[in-house]
# Entry
Amino acid sequence: MSPSFLAAAVSTVAAAAFTGMLVRRCTRVQRLDLIAWSVAAAGLAIALAAQALGYHQGFGSTTFRAVQIGGRLIAPLALCWGLAEVVGRTFLARFGSRLALLALFVIGSVILVLDPLASVTFSTAWPAAATYYEPIPNAVLLLIAVATAGWAVVALAVAGVRARGEPGWRG
# Structure
């Protein structure tokens, strides 16, 4: 067994356990940020499971797409959704962020699912997205990465400003 397979398998179990804990918490306290983070953890667990399967049996188009869609589309956008639910003060801000993230998700998922993969053969080595995807899906993945980083910076800035003025945010 390769170390990559072992690391991916252990991470899959941890992500699945974390997803279960979040879903259990969601059943008790029904908040949209917890639901969003449960979706992010589930996407990450799916991506890690596909990665472990790829390292064990060899990657294919299904495992490649599961890693890309779960780990590079669903997980980051759901994390951004959770951040927006936590730091969004007004309904309009939260609704606008949900709308923007949903648009990114729908457009990204259609492109990543329907775009044909390159005719390069898969192996048990890590499949780089630039090798198998055409330029448009690579641009979509880059856009999602940039949007996620920007979203996190804005959320941190909003939380920092709120911590200065509102006592509830100091803790």
Notes: The chain is about 80% helix and 0% strand. The chain has a mean pLDDT of 90. The radius of gyration is 18 Å.
